[in-house]
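Researcher: Quick test of sequence recovery. Tokens follow.
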């Protein structure tokens, strides 16, 4: 017997997470998605993982571009999170970005970012797990945007 997926979602919704936008660029073009299924995996070698729903358009972009950036959003960047959470094409034209070492777009104003080359893809149920080797990154400071219990939150002073 397994847990009901709605119950799992409810329970995991009580695990506060940072909010990220994962971006990529390359042969397939630019794309991005809001993600909180992101984790540091290893320090030696430096690895991070991102879980992507098998139905998400981002899947094909990551497979073809072979790189991604994890942009950790600042507490005043909720609109960026919402923008990249909706399905469909992603328009980067009016966003302040800089190309990372891999070519993946780095979002200006993010608290921090990691720039990764795709190392491996593993199955993960209804998701695929993309493991990236971190080739660059930076902390620019600020307070992070948090997601908890179905809502955006901010850290108290």
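Model:
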């Amino acid at each position: 017997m397994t847990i009901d997926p709605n119950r799992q979602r409810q329970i995991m919704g009580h695990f506060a997470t940072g909010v990220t936008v994962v971006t990529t660029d390359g042969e397939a073009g630019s794309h991005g998605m809001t993600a909180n299924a992101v984790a540091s995996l290893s320090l030696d070698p430096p690895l991070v993982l991102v879980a992507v729903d098998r139905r998400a358009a981002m899947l094909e972009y990551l497979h073809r571009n072979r790189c991604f950036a994890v942009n950790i959003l600042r507490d005043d960047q909720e609109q960026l999170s919402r923008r990249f959470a909706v399905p469909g094409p992603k328009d980067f034209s009016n966003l302040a970005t800089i190309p990372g070492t891999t070519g993946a777009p780095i979002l200006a104003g993010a608290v921090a970012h990691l720039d990764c080359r795709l190392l491996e893809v593993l199955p993960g149920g209804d998701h695929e797990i993309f493991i990236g080797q971190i080739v660059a990154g930076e902390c620019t400071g600020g307070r992070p945007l948090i997601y908890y219990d179905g809502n955006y939150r901010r850290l108290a002073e």
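The CA atoms of residues 74 and 144 lie 4 Å apart.
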